[in-house]
Write a structure and sequence with these properties.
Layout: E1 2-5, H1 8-14, H2 19-35, E2 44-48, E3 51-56, E4 62-69, E5 72-80, H3 88-101
């Protein structure tokens, strides 16, 4: 499955992560491309009907939100996780971008 980015800014911003988080993010995105919607825990988790997250664990915890659109996985948003619960604002940002795809 092809993995694309909602915008070049998201792709470029992923490169600003710490080395370990950047490397793991790249590996998980490759897994997403290989397994598509069959990718599950501990790598991916369903958030809403069409919103999923890649779960990068480590020193820098990162969540990469994606959806499936026209037989592609689209990375719509990511953030560095600082609290136990995913902030609603981050989910709303991702859902807003998904709405722009349709």
């Amino acid at each position: 499955m092809e993995v694309i980015f909602f915008s070049p800014t998201i792709k470029n911003s992923l490169h600003s992560l710490e080395k370990h988080a950047r490397s793991k993010s790249s590996q998980y995105i490759d897994l997403l491309g290989r397994f598509g919607n069959k990718l599950g825990m501990p790598y991916s988790k369903k958030i809403t009907r069409n919103l999923f997250e890649l779960r990068i664990r480590g020193q820098q915890e990162v969540r990469i939100f994606y959806c499936f659109h026209q037989d592609k996985a689209v990375i719509v948003h990511f953030f560095i996780k600082k609290s136990q619960k995913t902030p609603r604002k981050e989910i709303q940002t991702a859902l807003g971008r998904i709405a722009l795809l349709t």
